[in-house]
Amino acid sequence: MTDLVPVRRALISLSDKSGLAELARGLARHGVEIVSTGGTAAKLRELGAEVRDISDLTGFPEMMDGRVKTLHPKVHGGLLGVRDNPEHAKAMEEHGIAPIDLVVVNLYPFLNTVMSGADRETIIENIDIGGPSMVRSAAKNHAHVAIVTDPADYAALLAELDAHHGSTTLALRKKLAAKAFALTAAYDSTIAQWFAFADQGARWPETWTIASKLKMPLRYGENPHQQAALYIPVRPHARGIAQAEQVQGKELSYNNLNDANAALELVAEFREAEPTVVIVKHANPCGVATRSSLIDAWCEALACDSVSAFGGIVATNRPLDAETAEAITQIFTEVVVAPDAEEDAKAIFAKKKNLRLLLTGELPDPRRSGQSLAVITGGLLVQDRDNGMVTCEELKCVTKRQPTEQEVRDCLFAWTVAKHVKSNAIVYAKDGATAGIGAGQMNRRDSARIAAIRAREAAEANGWAEPRTVGSAVASDAFFPFADGLLAAAEAGATAVIQPGGSIRDEDVIAAADEAGLAMLFTGMRHFRH
Known about the structure:
It is built from 19 helices and 23 strands. It is an alpha/beta fold.
């Protein structure tokens, strides 16, 4: 391959015309002939640049509302011709095909058109055909042609032309070609997803295409010997942790982002509720509370398990105030996530240089649709995200004793938290605060016991007369297969139970609940979280 290739002719066709003036001046410095299309040619002339129309190059007018203008042998021959191949050179000479050394193209704004709510006809018209064709032709022939698809790369291109007397290097052309193919792949992926899901209503398309753009490399993955990075989907998506503004603190790690996402997803369940604080450790909540003020919610959430909260992630459903910020900084906290923060609160956090403060704006809708993905060896698991919820009206009481209104409220609170706890999950809650959480055990009885242990430890740490599991509601993310888990909850002092039901031993579990004097509600929905 040739290293230095002089740029004598450039083809420019742009939807995004930012940076065009600087680009035109830079090309003019090196005497580059500019060939252009429609609106881009008009803009270049407005900027004072000399431009040759594409129709002059091809001998054909732009036609069919601009659908046909660059799809021509004199364009693609000029892009694809291998300059040091005698047969290619002969064909180019015979057919009057002039080489094109530089292509500057960006594509019709398909995604923006979709997100604007445009009608189907407008969306279809914003599927670019000529642009991707030129991009791919130029990128394939990067040995002789430079392809620029991003205004952010104009500076690097012009710097190279200045440094090499109007030529590009192979290293730059290879880098630009890789970026170009990534662009067309992502572009086609977005179109394919729109056709499959929005236009055709497909449930599971035959080919699942995913395109994402690098936001930033991370320090490392779950462990220091693993590399990691954060990517943003190239498609419509909910705003979340990936889009949050980092106001301060150290660089975010893979684990920080994963845990912060878990905290945000849970606190979003309470976005319409009174002030709520969530504390997460290793992607599991260790304390959740709803109160009339954020500071009270923080104190109650922390009281649930102050040991696990050390080095944890805190999320709130309200903008942070100074009093709550001051309280949070009294313990070591990795990340704080909130919709916003008062200036006084930001100033308090600023004293903790390593603490990351992430502001998300509006919290995501917990009922939103979408899919979650998991990579397995040799495949990809795709499922609908768990946006299931239950209301009071949907609950079914299966025991002799009916729950009180407060027990129903505590059941629903515990159930909401349990949805975000790794299975097997048991959550005790009382008066709008978690009393004990048991997560990730191989059997439900052990989760119930661990949660009760946490509650006893909290009582000792806070000087309470008894653990808050006494008189609490307990939620189980899936049915109790045996009565032992339920009896462990009763031993801890729970008076009400909420669970999906559906076990072949439901009658045994109901009988045990009746014997213990418990009220038990069935949801008909489970929340496994593996």
